[in-house]
Specification:
Layout: E1 8-9, E2 13-18, E3 31-44, E4 47-52, E5 56-59, E6 65-68, E7 73-78, E8 81-82, E9 93-95, H1 98-101, H2 103-111, H3 122-143, H4 157-168, H5 176-182, H6 187-198, H7 202-220, H8 225-231, H9 237-248, H10 252-262
Antiparallel strand pairs: 1-8, 2-7, 3-4, 3-5, 3-6, 3-7, 5-9
Helix pairs in contact: 2-3, 5-6, 8-9
C-alpha cells in the first residue's frame, strides 16, 4: 500500500436522535455509527445486530442497510469510508463497547462534530477518519484473535498492483479484462483474488476508486460535474451522476454543496440532512454500476 495516501476518509459527522419506534430507511452508502444512548438495530447483509449504548458499527459502500430502534436512541454518525486498507474487514463490522475501548476517540467526535459550532477544517476531518478507522481496525484485529502483534493479513500482490494502477489512472477506460491482463491472470482468477483479498469484485473496486477520486475533485474545487465525470473515467455526465447517486444516495452537485456546507460554520444545520434519510433521491432504486457499462 502507498503510505502517502490516507487509508480512511470522512466528510461529515453529526448527532442524531431516533424516535421510539423508528423503522429507519434502507440506504446504501458507507457509514459509521456510535450508539450514545438507548439501543438500536442495524440490519445489513441479511443480518440484524442489536447495538447497545457504547457499541459502534461500520458499513461499507454498496451494502444496503438500515438503523431502527424500538425505544429510541441517540447516535453519532459519520460517513467514514475505507480507502486503502490491508485488512479484509467484515462488512458490516460491529465493535462492542467501542466507548470503553476507545473512549478518547469517541469523546473527540462527540464534542467536536464535523457539522456544528466546532466546524473543524478538512485537515481535522482527515484526522478524525484516521483515528476512527484505526480504532475500528484495531478492535477487529483483537476480536478476531489476530491481535495487534505478529504479521497482518497480506494483500495479494496482484490485487495490490491492480489497485495501484487504478488509483494512479482512474480515468483510464478500464475493463476487468484489462485489469487481469496487466497482471497476467485470467478474468476469473483475478476476480477470485479480489474477492479473497478485499471482499469485492474488480468492478466494485474500480467503482470505489473512481468515487473516491470524484469526491476529491468535487470537494476540492469548482470544476464542472461533466469534467469530473471524464476525469474519473465516465463517458458522460449522466452516467457519472447515476453511478455517484447509486453509491452515495445523492447526486454529485448536491454532495458538493453538502461538503461545502459542512466546512461552513454559518450553516451547521446543513449537515442534519446528510443523514440522507430525508432526501427524495434516496427513495429511488439504487442500481450498481458495472465496469463493462463503462460508467466508462
Amino acid at each position: 500500500m502507498n503510505q502517502d495516501r490516507p487509508s480512511w476518509e470522512m466528510t461529515f459527522a453529526y448527532q442524531e436522535q431516533l424516535a421510539a419506534g423508528s423503522a429507519g430507511e434502507d440506504v446504501r452508502f458507507a457509514g459509521w455509527l456510535l450508539v450514545d444512548d438507548g439501543t438500536a438495530v442495524l440490519t445489513a447483509a441479511g443480518q440484524s445486530h442489536l447495538l447497545r449504548a457504547g457499541d459502534a458499527a461500520l458499513v461499507g459502500m454498496q451494502v444496503r442497510h438500515r438503523v431502527s430502534t424500538r425505544d429510541g436512541a441517540a447516535l453519532t454518525r459519520a460517513d467514514l469510508r475505507a480507502v486503502e486498507v490491508g485488512y479484509p474487514l467484515a462488512n458490516p463490522l460491529v465493535v462492542r463497547d467501542f466507548v470503553g475501548r476507545h473512549g478518547g476517540v469517541a469523546e473527540l467526535v462527540r464534542r467536536c462534530p464535523l457539522a456544528g459550532p466546532c466546524s473543524p477544517s478538512a485537515l481535522f476531518a482527515s484526522g478524525y477518519a484516521s483515528l476512527l478507522g484505526a480504532a475500528m481496525t484495531a478492535s477487529w484485529l483483537e476480536d478476531t484473535g489476530r491481535g495487534t502483534e505478529g504479521p497482518a493479513p497480506v494483500l495479494d500482490p496482484a490485487v495490490a498492483r491492480v489497485m495501484n494502477a487504478l488509483v494512479a489512472e482512474p480515468g483510464r477506460p478500464w475493463s476487468v479484462e484489462a485489469m487481469a491482463e496487466s497482471v497476467h491472470l485470467s478474468r476469473s482468477a483475478l476476480g477470485e483474488r479480489f474477492r479473497r483479498s478485499l471482499g469485492q469484485s474488480p468492478s466494485e473496486a474500480l467503482r470505489d476508486v473512481r468515487m473516491r477520486a470524484a469526491r476529491h475533485l468535487l470537494a476540492g474545487g469548482d470544476r464542472p460535474v461533466e469534467q469530473v465525470a471524464y476525469a474519473v473515467g465516465y463517458g458522460s455526465g449522466a452516467a457519472f451522476s447515476r453511478a455517484f447517486t447509486a453509491t452515495h444516495g445523492t447526486g454529485p452537485q448536491a454532495w458538493r454543496e453538502d461538503a461545502s456546507a459542512a466546512r461552513d460554520p454559518e450553516r451547521p444545520e446543513a449537515r442534519r440532512r446528510d443523514g440522507r434519510g430525508d432526501r427524495a433521491d434516496e427513495e429511488h432504486q439504487l442500481d450498481p454500476v458495472l465496469v463493462e457499462d463503462r460508467a466508462s
